[in-house]
Each structure stands twice: as structure tokens, then as C-alpha cells.
Amino acid sequence: MLQKSRFFRFCVYTLGLLLIIYMISKVSFLFQPLSKMFNILIVPFVLAGFFYYLLRPIVHFLTERKMNKIVAILLIYFLFAALAFIFFIVVWPTLIKQINNFADSVPMLIEGFKTQLNNIQSNRIVGFLNPGNSDLSNKLSELLNTIITTASNYVTNVISAITSFIIVVATAPIISYYMLKEGESIPRSFLHLIPSRYTRDGKEVLDEIDSALSGFILGRMIITSLLGVMMYIGFLIIGLPYSLLIAIIATILNIIPYIGSILGAIPCVIVAFIVSPTMVLWVLIVVVIAQQIEGNVLSPFIYGKRIDIHPLTTIVLLLVAGEMSGILGVILAIPFYMVVKIIIVRIYRLFLAEKVEELVE
């Protein structure tokens, strides 16, 4: 009888939930203003959260040495402003020069790519293995042209979007300031929303989420930055053209877990192939060495066992999130999954605990 009662309640709750979802779908137009507000606020709050976890260890380090928290935050902001100024003075001119040179040289690069393919096709071994693909170079050149055009349009759209929302994005440092200043009290406000008997569990969940996000964001930034530096040094040693631009692109793509290493290597190999097949070999050596150091030395040392996500799960998450929400979805997929997983696991444990208590009684 007890089992039937539980099953009946479960069916009623499920039907009620489905009915609520159905009614919301019928009045979805009422939520459009909220959707627009969410789309506007998501970018600055994501950036603010990123800076919060990035800067919080430094704030704790300074406050533990008896420095006032507000003074510590302002000091960190001043240092970051100084680093940004140095970047724009030292690195930015070289980067802009390489971007302009790359944009002006696109037709020449495509011709060079086609020439290298023709040279490979003229090889006897390749010709014997692919006797019917005489137009392979034309097809691949067209594909490369399409990729470069698409990438250029995407970059243009991104720059346009950043320009359009520069005021919104500029609010991120302000939000992160208040998060750093009052970050310890923010989780307590969520504890008032749950029943008092679950307060301890709620606090433990919030602490676990905070630890997981902090480890992932901080670790990912450190690892990606070091990987980018290693690749840039390697590209300079082998003499790869546009080394700074290519290293930055590869570094940004490597932020994406697992598949980011493959995506980051693609532009490096393409530029290297335009120079010569030998340069491709050297680029692959640099990329593989850097990624091996990152995977076998840096990641275990920085992450440890805090990131427990199967690679297949990560790939599925990234594919689904990218299809649903684009680049923002790809960036937020792993942190969102970590938060949801922690909450679901804790709820499941509480459910089992309550079930055991009922059986004991």
C-alpha cells in the first residue's frame, strides 16, 4: 500500500510538472522581456564570475597579511590596469601588425597552399595512391578559402558585438569588485531559500560548488596561459610566420577542454603547410611537446583529482551546448555540468538517507 501511495504521488507530481511546462509554453511571450534581460546580463556576470575566481586567491593572500580588503581589491585592479597598459604598449602593436599582414596576405597564402598541394600531388607515391584525385588541390584550396572567409566574418561579427555591448561588458569589473568585497556573504543569502533542516547540506553543496568552480576556472586559465607561452616560444624557435597571432588563437581554442587541443592545432598546421611540409613537422613537434607537458605535468599538478568528468561526457556536453548557445554555451557547458552534478548527487544522497530512515522506523 505504501509503495502504491508513493507511485501515485510520483505520477501526480510528474503530471503537475508537465502541466506547468505546457502552460508556460502557451504564454512564452510574457517571458520575452526576461529573456532579453538575461541575454544582456549573462555576459557581464559571466566575466565578473571569471574575474572573481581568478582574483579571489590574491585578495585572500593580501587580507591574511592584515591588508584591508577594499585596499587589496583596488591594489589588484591597479596592477591589472598596469599589466593591460604594458600589453597595449609592448604586445598589441606586434599583434595588430601580424593581423594586418595576415589579412593582406590571404590571397598569397591560398596560392601558397595550392602550390604545396600541387607539389605533393606531383610526388610519384602520392600519385600512385590517389590516381583519380587530380583536382584535390583545387578542392582543398576552395575549402581553405571558405574557412578563412568564415573565420574573418566571425571575427568581424564578434568585434561588432563587443563594440555594441562595450558599456555592458565594461560593467563586469564593477560587478566583480562587489563580488570580491562581499563574496563571503552572497552564498548565505541562498541558504534562507531552503528549509532549515537542509541548511547544513545546502552550505556543504555551496562550498563544494565554489571549490569546483574555483579549481576549474583558475586551473584552466593557468594551464592555458602556460601552454600558449610554450607554443609561442616554440613557434619563434622554428620561425613560424605570424607566431604571436597563431599562438594566441591556439591558446583561446585550448580553453575548451579535450577538443580544444585539436582545434588549436589546426590553424598552426595550416599556416605551417603554406610554408613547407617540413614546417608542418616542426609545428607538430612543438604542439605535441607543449600538450604533453600540459597533460602529463601541468594538469595533474594543478588540477589533481578535482575535475572528475569523463572525456566522452565532455565532448557530448560541448557539442550540445555549442549547438544550443554557440561559443558562450561551449564556455559555460563544463562549469554548468559540474554545478548540476553536485546538486543532483547531494539530492540523491538525501533521498537515500530519508528512505533508509523510513525503513528503520
Q: Explain this structure to me?
A:
- It is a multi-pass membrane protein.
- InterPro entries: AI-2E-like.
- This protein is mainly alpha-helical and 361 residues long.
- It has helices spanning 2-26, 32-63, 69-104, 106-121, 124-129, 136-164, 166-169, 172-182, 186-191, 199-238, 243-253, 259-275, 277-302, 311-360.
- The chain is globular.
- Residues 125-129 and 158-162 have low confidence and may be disordered.
In short:
The protein is an all-alpha fold.
List the helices and strands and how they pair.
Layout: H1 2-26, H2 32-63, H3 69-104, H4 106-121, H5 124-129, H6 136-164, H7 166-169, H8 172-182, H9 186-191, H10 199-238, H11 243-253, H12 259-275, H13 277-302, H14 311-360
Helix pairs in contact: 2-3, 2-8, 4-6, 4-12, 10-11, 10-13, 10-14, 11-12, 12-13
Attribute tags:
361 residues; globular; AI-2E-like; transmembrane helix; transport; UPF0118 membrane protein YubA; cell membrane
One letter per element, helices H and strands E, the order comes to: HHHHHHHHHHHHHH
Tell me the span between the first and last alpha carbons. 16 Å
Number of helices: 14
| Average pLDDT over all residues | 75
Major sheet characteristics: none
Low-confidence stretches: 125-129, 158-162
Number of strands: 0
Q: Structural class of the secondary structure composition?
A: mainly alpha
User: What would you report as the Rg, rounded to the nearest angstrom?
Assistant: 26 Å
Query: Could you tell me the strand content as a percent range?
Result: under 5%
Mass-distribution shape: globular
Helix content: over 70%
